[in-house]
Design brief:
about 80 residues; alpha/beta; 3-stranded parallel beta sheet; 2 helices; about 20% helix; elongated
């Protein structure tokens, strides 16, 4: 459920909905340049919570099921 502002996402907590910052996951091949750069650009933006991952087995952090469930939006750089 989306809120009044584009950066708000409302999540159900029991019988209530609360506004939270969207979780954005940036994904690239090896998590070396593109996705970490995107995280650095948005790290201090108070509207979002950001994280990065890679798809390669040699990635600094290889994407996993937990990352996918955590993310509200996933941007893939390839």
């Amino acid at each position: 459920m989306y809120g009044k502002y584009a950066s708000e996402i409302w999540r159900s907590v029991g019988f209530f909905y609360v506004a939270v910052k969207p979780h954005i996951l940036f994904v690239c091949g090896r998590n070396k340049r593109r996705s970490p750069t995107a995280v650095n650009v948005y790290r201090n933006d108070q509207r979002f919570t950001v994280y990065s991952a890679g798809i390669s087995g040699t990635s600094g952090h290889q994407i996993n099921q937990k990352d996918i469930h955590w993310a509200d939006v996933i941007f893939v750089f390839e």
